[in-house]
Amino acid sequence: MLSGRHRAGETSRLGNLWNSAENQTKIILFWNKLYSRPDYGFGFGRQPFVDWNCSECRCYATADRSLFSQSAAVVFHLFGRRISHPHYRLPVRARADQIYVMAIFESPLRLFYNVSRYVDQFNLTYSYLNRPETDLFCPHGAILSLEKPDPGRMPSKETIRRKSGLVAWVVSNCKARSMRNEYVKELRKYLPVHVYGRCGNGSCPARECLFTIFDRYKFYLAFENSYCRDYVTEKLYRTLEHVVVPVVLGAANYSKVAPRGAVIDVRRFRSPRHLAGYLNWLDANDDAYLNYFRWKKRFFVKRRDTCRAAAVCKLCQILHNKRYGYKRHFDPHGYWDEDRWCSTGRPLRDIIHLNDL
């Protein structure tokens, strides 16, 4: 079995063979990293298509740009200093039938450049946006059913009584456009919120620190950096994996992306003061607090690597579907328009009840 890291001299032979009529193996080239993952959380070569139980396995995943001209599809992650540079241009297609895939997982407010420069250049979209325009849908997590209920997954009263803190928040972006910093500033007038990271006094440099926080505190502020439709990041799913109740601020429909009765949505409270009152009440009522974990008996959290694998599997399937409706005249700005999906400023203050203070 050949790996995704080719030996010198193999590139041309592999490309010509695998896109031949006899073999029909499609090469999928990951042009740049998906954050820190050059393999997009999927893997390299042919074997991952088998390991992830893809319905179509006649594909080969690689990050080797020397295979560009032989690639059936090229995936571009539209985030990062180089690809967002004003003078950056995508490579010219090697063939008219070569498919370009736009991968984008930051909110429209976090791109910091106009994606209209890429008009008519992409044929497929790969993102968290749960809309018909998205070809490869991949949220940051999912809630799946257990094979059978497991009451043992419910935390005990003894577990929650060992918690010594009430509310915690780890944050590094101190000027997020979701108004989360303004909301927390108001919330802290009515109850203690321990803030860790660059925007607070608490030190939390290591990832393991989060696990300590989840064990110690009853509530965690899973506040998004942008208030944009469908934008739900790992903050929510990471919190749900632990015995801590997420308090959420975001534009998602949380009844669809989280278990029923698992999160506390700030939009349901008339002000931060009213939210503080409710959190204090839950702190004093163990049974009511434990109700936020009843879902754990029937469901579990699946993180995004499985979703990323499913997206690459689907891409392979699409490449072998001669009737798939690829985008031919596609404007990324219309798809990723902040005015279409996001709220900021005074309208957002109204939504999260900061204007009535």
TrEMBL record:
It is a single-pass type II membrane protein. Pathway: Protein modification; protein glycosylation. Residues 161-327 form the Fucosyltransferase C-terminal domain. InterPro entries: Glyco_tran_10_C (IPR055270), Glyco_tran_10_N (IPR031481), Glyco_trans_10 (IPR001503), GT10-like_C_sf (IPR038577). It comes from the Eukaryota. GO terms for molecular function: fucosyltransferase activity. GO terms for cellular component: Golgi cisterna membrane; Golgi membrane. Keywords: Glycoprotein, Glycosyltransferase, Golgi apparatus, Membrane, Signal-anchor, Transferase, Transmembrane, Transmembrane helix. Its EC number is 2.4.1.-. It holds the Pfam family Glyco_tran_10_N. Its main location: Golgi. The keyword Transmembrane helix applies. The keyword Magnesium does not apply. Residues 24-140 form the Fucosyltransferase N-terminal domain. It is found in: Golgi apparatus membrane; Golgi apparatus, Golgi stack membrane. PANTHER family: ALPHA-(1,3)-FUCOSYLTRANSFERASE C-RELATED. Belongs to the glycosyltransferase 10 family. This is Fucosyltransferase.
